[in-house]
């Protein structure tokens, strides 16, 4: 069992696999299947997929398969384009490798500066030496988001842009080829004009969830839809599973069960044909969806965790809980002097124009975790100011002086010429 597109989620980026026999190829295929879900891949069943074998890894009944289908490739590409895999850009530490280190494996192991792979691959690498796994003469780096043409990118270069109002950008520091670790706004911070909360780098609001499933015109249905439909305890209205069956939502938890939308399109944007049910309630038309992804995939038609279900209330595990569970403890006015937000490491991330650990002084924004937002080695502004104050400004002052005293200077110049003329006579 694994969640879909959650490879970078701190709370859902994993899966459960049971090794019940000694069939290692079969178990390897199961692990690949569940990992595929984490990487955004849905089941191949009922889809027009191209597969090199009779059944590929993401087929719900396949065991022992070694190939992914064209649908799996498309699903993974979609997750990347929707910025669901930003953490995959974080380079693992050399001491976290699970294979025997050697020069040529294209992994930068302990003691190596780079690793370009085979001799043929290294012939095309301008930065790294073959067999030694050392940088070539004059090269500062060979890989990473902050490395270009074997040189470090200047500090302040954006290496990971913000993907959501609850996400924060990271910058190159000018002395490393790697981008800073990914951080985001602290869970529980208000977003969308106080109507929602930040949760794991996303502003979790109902309209956005409906639009992710049904398109840009969809909106959240009235609250009565949630209370009525989710009280039934079936596949179109529930608060998860309990004792091998669907769990009915208590009234206080209804907003944390199956998502209910209105003004929907007839086709979802997931690329999967689900079952859609329309329920008329009190003059409103409530739409719910069941993707039928199988027992190993949590239902993406449920309300997202972190959604605001009331004043100081948030959805966690299909229950409407107090926001205290998020441990949000950032007073931005006191801690960040009203000029920033707290990030997921509980450090202040300052707005542009403010700096310091607590955004208490003038600066360039960012945080101790984001990397510098400016290039401290760029002297062009300083040099420009020096030229202006010591060359351009004096010339301007001289010009203004000459212009203001032009009549007097002309008279003195004319008088001098007349005296010299009389002397010659």
Automatic annotation (TrEMBL):
Localization terms from the record: Membrane
Keywords: Disulfide bond, EGF-like domain, Membrane, Metal-binding, Transmembrane, Transmembrane helix, Zinc
Active site, per annotation: 34
Transmembrane segments: 385-404
Limits of the Peptidase M12B domain: 1-92
Chief subcellular location: membrane
Ranges for domain EGF-like: 326-360
Gene3D superfamilies from the UniProt entry: Collagenase (Catalytic Domain), Disintegrin domain, Galactose-binding domain-like
Residues of the Disintegrin domain: 100-187
Entry membrane topology: Single-pass membrane protein
Disulphide bridges, residue numbers: 51-56, 159-179, 350-359
A molecular function GO annotation: metalloendopeptidase activity
Name assigned to this protein: Disintegrin domain-containing protein
One cellular component (GO) term of this entry: plasma membrane
UniProt record, GO biological process: proteolysis
Residue positions binding Zn(2+): 33, 37, 43
PANTHER family found in the cross-reference section: ADAM A DISINTEGRIN AND METALLOPROTEASE DOMAIN (PTHR11905), DISINTEGRIN AND METALLOPROTEINASE DOMAIN-CONTAINING PROTEIN 9 (PTHR11905:SF136)
Keyword Transmembrane helix: yes
Organism: Etheostoma spectabile
């Amino acid at each position: 069992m694994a969640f879909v597109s959650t490879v970078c989620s701190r709370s859902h980026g994993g899966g459960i696999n049971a090794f019940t026999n000694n069939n290692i190829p079969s178990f390897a295929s199961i692990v690949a299947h569940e990992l595929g879900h984490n990487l955004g891949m849905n089941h191949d069943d009922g889809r027009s997929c191209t597969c090199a074998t009779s059944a590929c890894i993401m087929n719900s009944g396949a065991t022992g398969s070694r190939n992914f289908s064209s649908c799996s490739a498309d699903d993974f590409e979609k997750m990347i384009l929707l910025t669901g895999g930003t953490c995959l850009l974080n380079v693992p530490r050399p001491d976290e490798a699970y294979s025997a280190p050697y020069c040529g494996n294209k992994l930068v192991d302990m003691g190596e500066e780079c690793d370009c792979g085979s001799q043929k691959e290294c012939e095309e690498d301008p930065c790294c030496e073959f067999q030694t796994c050392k940088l070539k003469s004059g090269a500062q780096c060979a890989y990473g988001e902050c490395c270009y043409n074997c040189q470090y990118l200047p500090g302040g270069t954006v290496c990971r842009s913000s993907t959501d109002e609850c996400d924060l950008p990271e910058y190159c520091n000018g002395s490393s080829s790697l981008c800073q670790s990914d951080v985001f706004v602290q869970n529980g911070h208000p977003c969308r004009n106080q109507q929602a909360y930040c949760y794991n780098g996303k502003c979790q609001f109902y309209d956005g969830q409906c639009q992710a499933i049904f398109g840009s015109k969809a909106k959240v249905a009235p609250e009565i839809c949630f209370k009525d439909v989710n009280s039934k305890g079936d596949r179109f209205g529930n608060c998860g599973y309990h004792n091998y069956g669907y769990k009915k939502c208590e009234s206080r938890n209804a907003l944390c069960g199956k998502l209910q939308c209105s003004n929907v399109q007839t086709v979802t944007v997931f690329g999967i044909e689900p079952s859609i049910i329309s329920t008329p309630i009190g003059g409103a038309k409530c739409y719910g969806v069941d993707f039928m992804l199988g027992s190993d995939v949590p239902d993406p038609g449920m309300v997202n965790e972190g959604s605001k279900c009331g004043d100081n209330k948030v959805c966690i595990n299909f229950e409407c809980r107090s926001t205290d569970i998020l441990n949000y403890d950032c007073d931005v006015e006191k801690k960040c002097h009203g000029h920033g937000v707290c990030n997921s490491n509980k450090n202040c991330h300052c707005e542009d124009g403010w700096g310091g650990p607590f955004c208490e002084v003038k600066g360039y924004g960012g945080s101790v975790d984001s990397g510098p937002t400016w290039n401290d080695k760029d002297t062009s502004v300083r040099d420009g100011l020096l030229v202006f104050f010591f060359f351009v400004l004096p010339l301007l002052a001289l010009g203004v002086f000459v212009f203001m005293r032009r009549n007097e200077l002309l008279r003195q110049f004319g008088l001098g010429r007349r005296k010299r003329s009389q002397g010659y006579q």
